[in-house]
Amino acid sequence: MSVVLEGFGLVKRFGSTTALDGVGLAIHGGEAVAIMGPSGSGKSTLLHCLAGIMKPDAGEVHLLGRRIDTMGERERSALRRTRFGFVFQFGQLLPELPAEENVALPLMLGGVSRADAVRQAREWFVPLGLAGMEQRRPGELSGGQAQRVAIARALVTRPAVVFADEPTGALDQATGHDTMRLLADATRRNEASLVVVTHDPQVARWCDRTVEVRDGRLLPGTGVVPGAVSGAAG
Ligand SMILES: Nc1ncnc2c1ncn2[C@@H]1O[C@H](COP(=O)(O)OP(=O)(O)O)[C@@H](O)[C@H]1O
Ligand SMILES: [Mg+2]
């Protein structure tokens, strides 16, 4: 499969802390990549740079051959809404909205009518094991059910890449593994790539490969070699 998303030479500093120290990572179409490493090693910063949430201080990020790290906030925000999906640890659902409207929200933000958006959103409930939960508010869902709603919301726009930062971090182990299996299966079925930050080797097992981050760098043999970038190499 061809490269969908690629970061190279990524550097990000926060004051005197170098969170990323020259990272290159290529994500292929439809693959699931786990990013592992100790707390504070730079995993979330890497995910935020790849996803256009954060601008790196150096390096480049390309989505489908288009450079995205130099785009303005408005353009990156539109790109995140249309090409990317996000699943975070917990609490990212809007508590006052029923589950189906939480799922419909990214479509409505993209200009789809409320009725159409809710109709499309409802189609995700049965495949994700959420039949009958459409009208529940997030507070009326278990942690695992809430994460499945978040997975539906991440996929409803049919993104190219889904980013998940510790998606099982707030769940017990069994629920976490179920959630990860659903996330990996659902992204695969929808031909989206998955980039998932996790501490849990059992979670990483659902992915096609794992890259290890230490002190803002990838361990040798993981990621991509700087300069080996398709179309960007000299
Ligand atoms: N917004 C920020 N301001 C200051 N320092 C930050 C910020 N975000 C991350 N850092 C620092 O950068 C390093 C990497 O953080 P992070 O990417 O969140 O690590 P991880 O996700 O692997 O736990 C840490 O030392 C962290 O304290
Ligand atoms: Mg983190």
Bound molecules: adenosine-5'-diphosphate, magnesium ion
Number of helices: 7
First and last CA, distance = 23 Å
The CATH superfamily of one domain is P-loop containing nucleotide triphosphate hydrolases
CATH class of one domain: Alpha Beta
Shape: globular
User: What is the CA-based Rg, rounded?
Assistant: 17 Å
Class based on secondary structure composition and strand pairing = alpha/beta
CATH topology of one domain: Rossmann fold
Question: How large is the share of residues in beta strands?
Answer: 25-35%
- Low-confidence region ranges: 225-234
Characterize the largest beta sheet: strand count, sense, and whether it forms a barrel.
6 strands, mixed
Helix content: 25-40%
The ordered H/E elements are: EEEHEEHEHHHEHEHEE
Give the mean pLDDT: 92
What is the number of strand segments?
10
Neighbour order of strands in the largest sheet: 6-7-8-3-9-10
What CATH architecture of one domain do you see? 3-Layer(aba) Sandwich
Q: How are the SSEs ordered, and which strands pair?
A:
Blueprint: E1 3-14, E2 17-28, E3 32-36, H1 43-50, E4 58-63, E5 66-67, H2 73-83, E6 84-87, H3 99-109, H4 114-122, H5 143-155, E7 161-165, H6 173-189, E8 193-197, H7 201-204, E9 209-214, E10 217-218
Parallel strand pairs: 3-8, 3-9, 6-7, 7-8
Antiparallel strand pairs: 1-2, 1-4, 4-5, 9-10
Helix pairs in contact: 3-4, 3-5, 5-6
This protein binds adenosine-5'-diphosphate (ADP) and magnesium ion.
